[in-house]
Structure formats: structure tokens, C-alpha cells
Design brief:
alpha+beta, about 80 residues, single chain, elongated, 3 strands, Arc Repressor Mutant, subunit A
């Protein structure tokens, strides 16, 4: 009986976590004044993180290297998406 309860709670938590991830991916808007990591930017652009790094290095996307990870302003993401 206790294992059934644990399994049900685990299933509910998994569904909630997946729902939050989908919300963050598809329904959340890019805020121009926020700074995004290269991983977050990749999710919003629908590309790999390495592609975002290439875009920054080729100066197609504005960003700065901070502690080994690129930081990209939201405004830069919006400008890139509008091109």
C-alpha cells in the first residue's frame, strides 16, 4: 500500500515538472531587460547551445563571456528573432 502511494506521488511530481518545463519553453516571453545564459537562449531560439555560442562569436548575437558561459541580453534575442 505504501509503495502504491509513493508511485502515485512520483507520477504526479513528474507530470508537474514536465508541465512547468513546457510552460517555460513555449509560453514564457523573452524579457528585453533580462540576461539569459547560452543554454536558455538556445531553448528560446530552438537551437543547440553550441549554435548560440557560434552566433555570439560571429557577432550575429550580442553576448559576453562570464565565468565560462555566455550571457546574452534579452533585447539581443528579440532583435535576432525579428531579423
Amino acid at each position: 500500500m505504501i509503495w502504491l502511494s509513493i508511485t502515485r506521488v512520483g507520477t504526479i511530481l513528474s507530470v508537474v515538472a514536465a508541465s512547468l518545463e513546457l510552460y517555460n519553453l513555449f509560453l514564457r516571453e523573452i524579457k528585453p531587460n533580462r540576461i539569459y545564459t547560452s543554454g536558455e537562449a538556445a531553448r528560446y531560439l530552438g537551437v543547440n547551445r553550441s549554435d548560440v555560442v557560434d552566433l555570439v562569436r560571429n557577432k550575429k548575437l550580442h553576448g559576453k563571456l562570464v565565468a565560462g558561459n555566455y550571457r546574452i541580453p534579452g533585447q539581443s534575442l528579440l532583435e535576432y528573432l525579428n531579423k
